[in-house]
């Protein structure tokens, strides 16, 4: 029996990953910057490139890279990761007749304006920035043209990765299930630290097809103030609200467990953003173990007296959940 009768191609997707983009947008003396890592993958009538060594159906990955840079230059939406990703995905699906889906992932690095003194108060500098933390904005977009080039559907998931948080009190873990394998001691006061990975999914959106010959146009269909804008993928305040909800809930919640705090975070994001359908968190528990000093007669293990800790990288608890809108 030949190899060709034993197997078939059932899924194929290809493109360019880790395209690093830094863009300056000038408004007179006031300047904006964004830094992205972009991945674009294409699906469609490309199977013969795998099964018949037919490269005529392949849009070269180098071309995908060049298109990414060109749209970064001309797109009026470059400062917003969701809109830029949708613009890029819409172009790929609209430009190439044999491409039915585009998958674009944008990772945005944090840059924040430096504040400087001006007439006795602090103001934001027009063109000086600092790297404000290691957490990143993540946007994942699918532009689906399988129903027709004039019936494009956008699917958007956004969120945060690597947001490291810690509070030194206000967290407990008690009354958990116990059996013969349980060695963990219940505590009513502990350090709570985690590296937040958050994703939130928007309801699917209809995307207008480009009307220009070269397929570079991208029109945002819902503008600020219009019905359906608030809490939608077009609402540029959603990322800040989601980040604030995460940080504020983490800080003020008298946490009974990571699970309980996670649920409250997600509830707030859904409540504050009308078009977010699901919220998912992945929270590894960063453990800090109090150093036992009983050997020299010092109490550093009871919660009220624990002040010196050893950070433990591995192993760690991992708590995940998805909360959905009813």
TrEMBL record:
InterPro entries: Uricase, Uricase_CS
Any Gene Ontology CC annotation: peroxisome
One Pfam family named in its UniProt record: Uricase
Main location, first listed in the record: other
Keyword annotations from UniProtKB, A to Z: Oxidoreductase, Peroxisome, Purine metabolism
Residues that bind urate: 61-62, 173, 190, 258-259, 285
GO biological process: purine nucleobase catabolic process; urate catabolic process
Catalytic activity: urate + O2 + H2O = 5-hydroxyisourate + H2O2
Pathway assigned to this chain's UniProt record: Purine metabolism; urate degradation; (S)-allantoin from urate: step 1/3
Residues that hold 5-hydroxyisourate according to the record: 61-62, 173, 190, 258-259, 285
Catalytic residues as annotated in Swiss-Prot or TrEMBL: 16 (charge relay system), 61 (charge relay system), 287 (charge relay system)
Cell location: Peroxisome
One term of GO molecular function: urate oxidase activity
Binding residues annotated for O2, in chain numbering: 61, 285
EC identifiers of the protein: 1.7.3.3
Family the entry assigns: Belongs to the uricase family.
PANTHER family to which the protein is assigned, alphabetical: URICASE (PTHR42874)
Function of the molecule: Catalyzes the oxidation of uric acid to 5-hydroxyisourate, which is further processed to form (S)-allantoin.
Name of this chain's protein: Uricase
Organism: Hypholoma sublateritium (strain FD-334 SS-4)
Lineage: Eukaryota, Fungi, Dikarya, Basidiomycota, Agaricomycotina
